[in-house]
From TrEMBL:
PANTHER family: GLYCOSYLTRANSFERASE, POLY-BETA-1,6-N-ACETYL-D-GLUCOSAMINE SYNTHASE. This is Glycosyltransferase 2-like domain-containing protein. Keywords: Membrane, Transmembrane, Transmembrane helix. Residues 3-127 form the Glycosyltransferase 2-like domain. It comes from Candidatus Gottesmanbacteria bacterium RIFCSPHIGHO2_01_FULL_40_15. Coiled coil: none annotated.
Length: 254
């Protein structure tokens, strides 16, 4: 059986659809970073419905403290099954991926974990190019095969044999430009703080050069222009994120 794990922070608009895509898991563990938008209320309303269908949902409230790995490792300490599936609140497990996972679970022997590909959507359009296209992450693994590492942009480092699922997660990270701006503003705080703890040293010229390189890489080199207006907005926003991280780091910590 599989335990799904979700980290939440003000995800009232996303969490119901995310949970519904996980109703085939026997257990869902949610660690909430003190949400103030009714996220926990949405989860509580769904708990009984899921329990009737054999899925137990448990919620833990815990401050993130800008450390995603610590939050994920805490969640792992609360699961009861051998296999753990980590899903973000803005992700969905489509039927094809669910069927593939369940099929592989029935015939596993020596695998420790699996990479899962992810497809981003923006304004209801799949982004098939740019830096987010073709990304894959270890998201399903056996309990006690490894821990998450890195405060931001964390990685699940496991020991043992791995494989890659053919089907992908659906990812809906930004409903609109305003939401996109809010998210990159928040995450740039986390990244700048992480750089401080690592003792990084950067130069002021990087504020200009790195965002430009980021845009060229996303929009031209990685063919983001083929995704139309959503691809253009994505390239601009990722470039702006690069600017924000460096601007905040230089003005706050250096």
């Amino acid at each position: 059986m599989i335990s799904a794990v979700i980290l939440t922070k003000n995800e009232s608009d996303n969490i119901a659809d995310c949970l519904k895509s996980l109703n085939w898991c026997s257990e869902i563990v949610i660690v909430d970073d003190l949400s103030a938008d009714g996220t926990v209320d949405v989860i509580e309303r769904l708990k009984d419905e899921f329990k009737k269908n054999g899925t137990v949902i448990r919620i833990y409230k815990r401050s993130l403290n800008a450390d995603f790995s610590a939050q994920r490792n805490f969640a792992m300490s609360k699961v009861n099954n051998e296999w753990i599936l980590f899903i973000d609140a803005d992700e969905r497990v489509p039927e094809l991926l669910k069927d593939e996972i369940l099929k592989r679970m029935n015939g596993l022997s020596d695998f420790a974990g699996f990479f899962i590909k992810r497809r981003d959507y923006f304004y209801n359009k799949p982004l098939l190019h740019g830096e987010t296209a073709g990304l894959k992450f270890i998201r399903l693994a056996r309990l006690n095969t490894g821990l998450w590492q890195g405060r931001v942009h964390e990685i699940w480092k496991i020991k043992g044999k791995t494989d890659v699922f053919q089907n992908h997660l659906d990812h809906f990270p930004h409903k609109n430009v305003a939401g996109f701006l809010s998210k990159i503003n928040r995450y740039s705080d986390y990244v700048a703080q992480s750089w401080k703890e690592q003792g990084r040293s950067i130069s002021s010229w990087q504020i200009l050069i790195y965002p430009v390189i980021k845009f060229i890489n996303n929009y031209i080199v990685k063919l983001g222009f083929l995704d139309g207006v959503p691809g253009l907005i994505m390239a601009v926003m990722m470039s702006f994120h690069s600017f924000l991280v460096r601007g905040k780091y230089l003005t706050r910590y250096q």
